[in-house]
Amino acid sequence: MADRGELTSYAYRQLRARILAESDTCHWCGHREADAADHLIPVSKGGAKLDPDNLAPIHGVAGCPTCGRKCNNEKSDRIGGARLVTSVDWYAGP
Residue 66 in contact with residue 90, Cβ under 8 Å? Predict the structure, then answer.
């Protein structure tokens, strides 16, 4: 199992805050109010732990308040930010 100590480091918490300040739209389901930062290329598969280009907003343990998904759990250790396919295009905007 990979060492996940970086998730509690000051550097990671600062980077997560910066990512969420730039956007709170979950890269997995497309809904707002993401509360976590996800590694697009998982650390277990060679992704950089603290590279801002490898992090994107995602719904964490609390889940998405709109669709109820636990996006980070659903994504698991898949590579990339493939979006979920739904009947509504959440990325089209208002």
Answer: no
